[in-house]
Amino acid sequence: MVDNEMMPGGDITVNSDIIVIDDSKVILTALKDILGGIYNVRAAQSAKEAYDLMQEKIPDLILLDLEMPEINGIAFFESIKTNPEWRNIPVIFLTSIDDRKKEETALGLGAAEYILKPIVAEILLKRVHFHLELAIYRRSLEKLVSSRTEDLLKTQEELQRAVNTAKAALRDKTTFLANMSNEIRTPMNNIMGISEAALEGDISPEMRGYFTGINDSTRVLLRVINDILDLSKIEAGKMEMENVSFSTESVIRNCQMMVSNQIEDKGLKLDIHIDNSLKEKQLLGDPVRLYQSILNLLSNAIKFTEKGTISFSVKQIGSGNEFAPLRFDIKDTGIGIPEEQLESIFEPFVQVGKEHSKVDAGTGLGLPITKSIVELMGGTLTVESTLGEGSTFSIEIKLPITKEDSLFDDVFGEALSENSDQPVFNGEVLVCEDNLMNQQVIREHLKRVGLESVIAENGLEGLRIVIDRMKKEKKPFDLILMDTQMPVMDGFEATARINALGTGTPIVAMVANVMVKDLEDYIRNGFLDCIGKPFQTWDLWRCLLSFLMPVKSSGITSAESTEQLQDDIDDTGPDNKKRILIVDDEKSNIIALAHFLRDEFSVFVIRDSREAAEMAANHMPNIILLDILMPGMDGYEVMTALKKNKKTKNIPVIFISGLTSPEAMMKGLSHGASDYITKPFEPSVVKTKIKRLLLKHELTN
Ligand code: ADP
Fold first, then answer.
1. d(CA 41, CA 32)
2. C-alpha–C-alpha distance, residues 138 and 5, integer Å
3. 306 alpha carbon to ligand 1 midpoint, in Å?
4. Which residues contact 574 (CB under 8 A, 6 or more apart)?
5. Distance of CA 236 from the midpoint of ligand 1 (Å)
6. Strands of 578-583's sheet, edge to edge?
């Protein structure tokens, strides 16, 4: 086959190779005469001769007689179509039969032409020329396509490599940012702590101005860091959404509380409307991220509005028993956004209309983050705005309805009670922290709420201090605040070792970027809670209140007696809650247990073990959690007393103890306990064990 390339100018078909097949010698000669001057023509009088010629060399075109004695043209044509090497040779039928049907069949099978004899030389030449040219173009097109495909595959491979490199870079960036933010937070913790401490002292108005400025700037810086970290998490696909039950109302009230000062400071009005149908509903989703999104929009509305009203409404925009489609509208009467910029404000670092506003520059990251979060929750964020009149930002989202009790209200509601009176505690906290400035700041924070602190430079020193205390039989620490990254021995190892000593002291991790998800990890590593650095005052209070009994706090009184302690802890919730009696002499243990049990159970406590059996008989709890090592009467003795009494002998008892040896556990179970939990316990394990036991007890009694 002649491999003609597409060349500009000249006849590209010259010297093409043609086989002419006809049983008539006359016709063959005539064809040779017509075509031979331009092309290389080979003649075959039968199908067999034609096959031989084709095997010698693949022709560029075939002229084929339709009717031949030994094999007809159609059958021959079909046979060459079965050979992949021959199938693309253009075939022109020559025939003296003017039969429409045959013509249709031939063309239908892929013939290039169907030409009626007698042959007109010029027409035949034109047709042959056309099909040769077509074949050449097709071949070069195929070549082009295959080389393009190759190029494309190469590009695709290169792209894939680039994507992999970019992904790795993004991962590195996220890790880098997480580490960086940790590094930045540490000194910021110090700056904030020092300026807060200074602001509480007796300082001149001028100094007060400076320190307030420092404090405000640090908070802004903290926001920038959080925003950048959030955005890089989103970009790296690492932003994970929680799926817990919560009520919309609680999210909204928390937002309201958060912005109330800003609203008041600017002399604005905040109108909140919540659809009645939503007030009772529990939804499944990520309340913290929803809160973050709404708060962002509300803060912007306040920031860009000088006078008037911010209206915040939540409506259910459709019905359904399984899902609640919601719409949150945050409408302001502020500066508005130019129409041509309504799209770009959702892009990172875009800030518009600064010339119209007197507000401080933000990061330009709030909206892109909010939009991404809302989209990760399966919702949409849209905006409508009129320059000079105001803007409305709307979130539409569809969330599953659940019957599960909300976890969010409790945890969050408490966390945000910033305006409540400062609690005062009585106790001693071990602080394991290597950074000198941080040590001072934490000590200062703790002193303000009445707590003494002992500082350890690293995990090992912390461990030594705890052991030393045990040797001297001094009272264990009430709480340990543990930095996780420290030289010599890090917080994880120190926590594992301290927990193994069985002092029962709750250990709280101090970390940067606490995510709800991370908490599980810390708990798995033996911490009972974690607190973000730099900690906000209310965050520290929330944490301390989980583990320590305040001696003074608004609404909470001294807890020296069992009754008072019980009053403080006891949930006044519905009577159908199962009752749990905790018998433990350690206040911190009681608080830690009660903290996570009280949302599901009614909790009673007794610290004097000598009164435990009597209290059980009076209150008839559904389950008893019993410590073993207690002054007065130990857990085994309490157990014996319970078993002796007809009323209490069937109440299931779980030993909760720092004694972790198999012998101790066997001894506990042989005394009649239904289960044994070692300290430090994982709240989820305790809950599961309690529920399983309650169910078993119900089924067997
Ligand atoms: P930041 O507020 O930190 O600058 P955002 O991403 O939250 O960043 O907002 C981007 C920009 O969108 C703002 O700088 C502002 O120009 C505009 N914008 C956002 N909300 C409003 C609003 N309620 N009214 C007017 N402009 C707004």
1. 6
2. 11
3. 14
4. none
5. 24
6. 601-606, 578-583, 623-626, 653-657, 675-678
In order of 541, 587, 588, 594, the CA distances from 546 in angstroms are 8, 11, 9, 9
Q: What are phi and psi of 24, to 5 degrees?
A: -95, 120
Distances (CA, A) of 626 to 111, 140, 166, 593: 95, 88, 55, 12
Ligand 1 atom closest to residue 348's alpha carbon, by position in its atom list:
6
- Pairing mode, strands 479-483 and 529-532: unpaired
Residue nearest to atom 14 of ligand 1 (CA): 351
Ligand 1 atom closest to the CA of 368, numbered from 1: 6
- Ligand 1 centroid–CA 408 distance in Å is 29
For residue 498, the CA-to-ligand 1 centroid distance in Å is: 49
Q: Report how far ligand 1's centroid is from the alpha carbon of 681 (Å).
A: 46
C-alpha to C-alpha distance for 509 and 433, rounded to whole angstroms: 11
List alpha helices for 304-389, DSSP H. Answer: 366-376
pLDDT in tens, 222-256: 777 777 777 777 877 777 777 777 888 878 877 77
Q: Which residues line ligand 1 (CB under 6 A)?
A: 300-301, 304, 332, 334-335, 337, 345, 350-353, 362-367, 391
- pTM listed for this prediction: 0.44
Cis-peptide into 534, omega within 30 deg: yes
Instruction: List all residues 6 or more positions away from 506 whose beta carbon is below 8 Å from its beta carbon.
Output: 479, 480, 528, 529, 547, 588, 592, 680
Question: pLDDT digit string (tens) for 431-446?
Answer: 999 877 678 778 878 8
Integer Cα distance of 32 and 20 in angstroms: 8
Q: Which residues contact 372 (CB under 8 A, 6 or more apart)?
A: 231, 234, 239
Instruction: Locate 683 and state its tokens.
Output: 């709240």
Place of tokens 């018998």: 583
Are 435 and 186 spatial neighbours (Cβ–Cβ below 8 Å)? yes
Q: What distance in Å separates the CA atoms of residue 215 and residue 663, rounded to the nearest whole number? A: 55
- What band does 515 get if pLDDT is binned at 50, 70 and 90? low
Long-range CB pairs of 361-364 (<8 Å, 24+ gap) are 362/300, 362/303, 363/223, 363/224, 363/227, 363/228
